Amino acid sequence: MSRIPLAGKTLSVLQKVAxxxxxxxxxxxxxxxxxxxxxxSALVRPLSLFPLILLVVLVTLPRLIREPLPSTLLILLPFxxxxxxxxxxxxxxxxxxxxxxxxxxxxxxxxFTLVIGAAMYYTVSLYPRTDDDLRAALRxxxxxxxxxxxxxxxxAVYVVDFDSTYFHALQRLQAYISTRKLFTVRVSGMTYEPNxxxxxxxxxxxxxxLASVLSGYSAFRLRWRWLTVEWFLIVWSVVVLAFTFSRAxxxxxxxxxxxGFLFFREHSQHQPREVRRGRKFWLMRGLEAAVVLAALGxxxxxxxxxxxxxxxxxxxxxxxxxxxxxxxFEYLGFGARFRYGxxxxxxxxxxxxxxxxxxxxxxxxxxxxxxxPLATSPELLRLLLPEGNRERxxxxxxxxxxxxxETGLVGLGVFIAFLVALFGCALFLWFSSDREQKxxxxxxxxxxxAFVVSAVSFDSFAIPNMWxxxxxxxxxxxxxxxxxxxxxxx
Length: 490
Known about the structure:
- There is one protein chain.
- Strand 3 and strand 4 (487-488) form a beta hairpin.
- Helices cover 67% and strands 2% of the residues.
- The chain is mainly α.
- It has 19 helices and four strands.
- It has helices at residues 3-24, 49-66, 71-91, 103-126, 131-160, 164-174, 194-215, 229-242, 247-264, 273-276, 279-304, 312-319, 325-331, 335-350, 361-368, 378-384, 399-430, 435-454, 464-481, and strands at residues 223-224, 227-228, 484-485, 487-488.
- The protein has one domain (3-316, 397-488).
- 40% of the residues are buried.
- The longest helix has 32 residues, at 399-430.
- Strands 1-2 form a two-stranded antiparallel sheet. Strands 3-4 form a two-stranded antiparallel sheet.
């Protein structure tokens, strides 16, 4: 008689451990000890994939089969079907093998990353059943990032004052965390490179922390007056983010800070509604947002003086005699990215409806690249040589352009419809009169804004950032829209 309850308790504990492990492991994105069958040669190797597999078997698939689902979950399915259809059709085109990489191999690999992303989204959407579960999920995310921020802080020490012995000691430890070595002048946390760490902080961590600070809501009971755990974490995150010297990460930070203080800061209860709609109110909000932006700008400028490459952002206009906008972007190193984007758009124009299939952009890149001099782009020259590594390196490096090139207008349109549904979920929460629901609405909107911006600098389906934000947004909207009996249940 006791075996059934014992088995049930064991299963419940196993699910909770897998869920906590999945969230805590999110900062590790290029885990070196990956089986080859799971993409052991890929750049993106999330450690969270291991507990995710267990969650999919124990939680996600049973709930997908047996229980009613949020309609937002169903909106992602058309995109997956379009991606599969586009990829199957591309096989019939007879694409030539390049550098011993077959089109079928690229397609299977790309579809595998999409399956990983979809599994993350569905799991994060379905696992929380109550608002207590949502708060607990945030606490586990914060715990994982606290570890990553601590590791990043240790790296910041040698960025400020380099010591060879100390650096090589951390380097040896980093080999157990990431497939890439540490940078001597930048902080990369537990990820493959500093840009990944910065975008991870900006797109996955800051939306929840900023929403908490702006609303006074906390996932923890521990607080002293207005100071909460989230206040400590957000200051820590901004300091570490500055030492990544990532232009994309800094851009996300500044945008979130300006948007958050302008639109999402909690209103004073003593202000009448007509005052909150007046011109003077918005002028004051704009001034507050500008002051926050200026303060962050000064801090980033001071930190940037430690990095010669990062300081190019403001040094160009004084160092170059004939300064112009196109020369500025070349000076910052965006030339190669623009050419990746141009090739992706040319590919879309050649195959506008369904694109060339997931992963196949690399095969069309040489012929679709614009006819421009490559002397200033050693990166592109290396890729175009016969021995160039197209299996790993040639991607559009822009999520939107990748969708256009590889799934066409149909794929991009369906994915945008999915994003619109997510924005609808976030707005539903934000317009609620309940304080906790408004927090989740603020955080979800900030997370979606961060994704929209960050998507111009990444193109992988396997990076967890966007899927976790999408999943928590869907889960919160689903939980708070259901009838309540005591605690809210799904």
